Amino acid sequence: MNRRTTVSGLLGLMITLGLAAASAAVAQTAPTQTAPAQPAQAAPAPTAPARVIPAANYVAVGVYYYEQGQFDQAYVAYRAAAEIDPRNTDALIGLGRSQVKLRLYSAGIETLRRLISIDSRNFDAYISLSQAYVQQYIGAGDRASVASNLNEALRVLTDAEAVAPAGASRNVPLSRVWNERGYVYKLQGDGTKAIEAFRQASTLNPDNSILLYNLGDMYYATGNIPQALDYLQQAVIVDPRDAYNRAYYAKLLALSGNLTAARPEAAQAARLAPKNAYAVGQYGVVSYLAKDTATARAQLTQAVTLDPLRYPEFYYYLGRLNLDSGELKAARENLTRAAALGSNTPEYLYYLGLSYERGAGAVAPDRLKARENYEAALKLSPSYRLAQEGLNRTR
Asked: Which regions does the record annotate with the repeat TPR (predicted)?
């Protein structure tokens, strides 16, 4: 049965019932004309009982909206289902996940805890609760206030492992547990444990491109580009139409110096998903590294138009293009955005400092701002030689 057709029917049913209820309410409150007096013994006409919409219908609508990325609408539907049936596990897990997507982290955590208290062997509830702790940690303005979240996430994952299905079907759920552990270890800054967790996840579920991607990404984060390339290539082979994996693979090829192989891979990723900001932007990055400035500028500009807030890297490379061509005003604007969105990346601050150190035409140098950005870059990376040289020049 087609899910979209089924949910559309449920939506139609709910709309119909809602209109019927509204009509009944209007009928009850609308003014009436004076009617002849009825005999005292006349009994009132029986009224039909209001039809109650089952919780399962609201859950189905919640699933539909959640899959469409309309998390506010999903939240409303799941909440209605949970109010009708407070012990409905499908309603509670959908509600908890929707709350997390809407950044209602504390409420989401509480909902998922309630679900586990009702169904202590609900594997998905444990995974979702662990993810909620992680997302609250990532989204916190003051991470010290939620410092215990990552350890809580690991504790919940241990509980998830204990309730994973037995037998041959156990491997895939366990791969999810290890994959989530990998994310937590990465946030804790433990690259060795993160790699081991992602490797374990991929061993349990070897044909999953996301797990291969995560393992490759962790190898890149720890400076092992050959291993990163190996796993990203496997991810592309497993799922050749995944534009995200292919774009990342292309970028790593370019960074390793293999621009001949990188350019067609990046172009293919952008063709596969022309509205995917990451794929389009990495085509721009690869083009910049290959000194194809026209393609780089077009693709990077398109990427930040598609998603203005998610990828500081693309503003960084646009700023580099501006610097290369002497467009200092535009360089400062793009590099400021990069540094604001990626405040923990010293390269963004260094090049922002460089844009202020330089002057051209009506744009005067600003040695004070240059020095401030060089100092900020050095604070993040004390051994950053270029930033130290820039600071020495501007003192």
From this structure: 55-88, 175-208, 209-242
